[in-house]
Write a structure and sequence with these properties.
With 158 residues, this protein is mainly α. It has one domain. Strands 1-2 form a two-stranded antiparallel ribbon. A hairpin with a 2-residue loop joins strand 1 and strand 2. It is flat, with a radius of gyration of 23 Å. The N and C termini lie far apart (52 Å).
């Protein structure tokens, strides 16, 4: 058991973030192959990747949960609760943005663990786009319109 933990430690320190998760540079593979079978190295890499993703999942869920506790806690006060009962509860754009950023990060991590069809994100992505464009809506719309009317050969230079 101690040797496997040692291998996982080496893999964790040598691995780099790649497009599909953690990867080991070729020189690290060669060095580890001197002592380990390739399957053991691959298993260690998968274990380290899974551990990293679980840590990120916990961190993202904790961040979202903390913000939701703050937000929902405001409705514990009698006047705020009465406004909510009357259908007059309001979320500021700042709060919506904070929640959207936290949910987006949580969704990124959950994609690795989801089985089946993910939820429909079209409305959520539209909200994120609007939040990002806030204050510069006209310029962003002009940019989108210009891109949509640009011939295909001009678009490739970007």
């Amino acid at each position: 058991m101690g040797r496997i933990v040692e291998l996982c430690g080496e893999v964790a320190s040598e691995s780099e973030e790649g497009p599909e998760g953690l990867v080991l540079p070729p020189e690290a593979w060669e060095r580890l192959r001197a002592e380990w079978e390739e399957q053991d190295i691959e298993d260690a890499l998968a274990l380290v990747q899974d551990s990293l993703m679980q840590s990120e999942l916990v961190e993202a869920a904790d961040s979202l949960s903390a913000r939701l506790l703050d937000l929902l806690g405001t409705f514990g006060e009698t006047p705020a609760f009465r406004r909510a009962e009357a259908g007059q509860a309001v979320l500021s754009l700042e709060v919506i943005g904070q929640l959207a950023r936290r949910v987006a990060r949580l969704e990124e991590v959950l994609e690795s663990y989801r089985e089946g069809t993910p939820p429909d994100r079209r409305g959520f992505e539209a909200l994120r786009r609007r939040l990002a464009d806030q204050g510069i809506e006209e310029e962003m719309e002009q940019g989108r319109t210009a891109q949509a009317t640009m011939p295909d050969d001009e678009d490739e230079g970007e």
